[in-house]
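Researcher: I'm comparing several assemblies side by side, and this is the next one on my list. It has 636 residues spread over two chains. Same procedure as the others: predict the full complex and return the structure.
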Amino acid sequence: MWEQRSQNALMVAGVGVGVGVLVFISALIGGLQASLIERTTGSQAHVVVTPLELEGRPVLTDDPNDEVRYLRRVERPVQRIRSIPEWRKLDRNIATVSGVTATAPIASGPALALRGPTERSVQVMGADAERLEQVIPIVKNIVAGSYGVNGSDVVLGVDLARELGVGVGDRVRIRTSRGEGQIFLVRGLIDMGNQGINKTWALMSLRNAQTLLDLGGASTSILVRVTDLYAADVAADRIGKVTGLTSRSWMQSNAQLLTALRSQSASTTMIRFFVIVSVAIGIASVLVVSVIQRSKEIGILRAMGTSRGGVLRVFLIQGALIGLAGSGVGCALGAGLSMLFRLALQNPDGTPFFPFALTPALFASSAAIAVAAGVVAAILPARRASRLDPAEAIRYG
Amino acid sequence: MAEPAAVLELEGVDKDFSSNGVVTPVLHTIDLRVGAGELVAIMGPSGSGKSTLLNIIGLLTPATRGRLKLTGEDVGPKDDTALTRFRGERIGFVFQFHHLISGFTAAENLMMPLIIGRGRVTDGMRERARASLSEVGLAHKMDARPSQMSGGEQQRIAVARALIANPPLVLADEPTGNLDTENSNKIFELMRRYNRERKTAVVIVTHDPRIGERCDRIVEVVDGRIHRDERVQSPAAKF
């Protein structure tokens, strides 16, 4: 009895450690990936719709006497700021595409920000504040002042503001190469967690951007948010078909990042697989010993009328229960370790160094994997037990 | 006096064991009939084939040739599931080393044949286990585990377990082989009582001639053949 309890405790502990590692690694990698994706998509739209790129112009050999003129090169056109024709209508059409939750037409282009003798290149981003907020979260990234782009207000990237030496309430001139520009009042500063944005963005109203960039009433691109982040490429394809414009998802724009994440996921899956295989081998080994030790009991049960299937079921259920109990221990262990790391390793601002993603789905999937591993591990011992000759088992045990 | 209805009938049963292509005959043309309420001792020297015969009767080992009938029904070539059901419904077993399941209480061990038959525990089963334990004088051991009981007590529970489902046939393989005289006496008396009260046919494999003398009939097996099959004229009351 004590022996059986020890064996069960040993198996549950083994499964517990395995599931604990599984939960810990999955929570860590899942958290890191989610954080990375959130940071990436937190500062950009899921899909960006822009006018089609101008096509290259063929340049032929220039001797007019030649009978045949050859292609010398393809001259790439200057990609000047171009607006989307009939953007209001297209914006409405995009909003009807399945999976799209919000759109924000913007007018954007390069400009210079001047403050005294200092000047910096900026990316003017003109949009309706509320609509932009629905596509890219700006408000939560405001680190000083507020998010307001009415009148001559501007919100600057935090690094840009530092380089210009301006703060909330200061004024800054923004101009393009073609005009005198306009004086803006710095209403707020944003930190989007992206140096490129923090160093260049100047958020203003759509109308101000249109005037500054000499776009008339036009929009240069439409930013789109979709329901399923990971199906953004599908939505981008649909939008491209509906509008006939260039439609790029964040996945296309960050292909390298996604490749890296996929490689990381593959490594994690391999680790999880081998952990589970080790756990299953552990369960199977102990159960095989258990079958040998319990041969007499199995023989007696068979003599009393327990079918082979009944014996098989007993061991399979035992495997499943060990998996379930072990997964309970493992989930607690994994969650505890994650909490410990979260508390022990923190950034200077008090945020966790490792963002662990401990979700109900992770616990449920870990438990399901452990139960399945327990059942699979029990198959061989269970078959062996069910095939014991009852007469021999009773006599020789 | 009319002969009691046959519970067990063997006709021309042979058993061969084969290993690495070598066939070893163990039992030869066994004919045996055991009626309801009979208590039969199968005796013989070691290696004579007694236990093999008991295993064939208990449907634990198939016969190589011959016919076996239980309660009038021919146990022909059946699959394992059918044989197991047959065994569970009609045969009770008592072994030399009691073989109670160590993790279960006395009551749970007793109920085991009923649970296997029904697939679940019912209130009635627990009451039946309590009554059976009272009959063997162990009502106070209801929740005791095997390790908390003596060898004699465990064997009394094993006898009660073999009989709890009221099988028409009980097979006992050296049921007193591991017990002292006092406990052997108690175990035999218990089996005799059930045998008489319920008309259960009991077949005991034993080396002990004192057990044989107290049975209704002695079947002696020598070299795989029935050497002697005799009624005991006046079975002894005690050892």
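Model: For your comparison table: Residues 36 and 257 of chain A are 9 Å apart (CA to CA).
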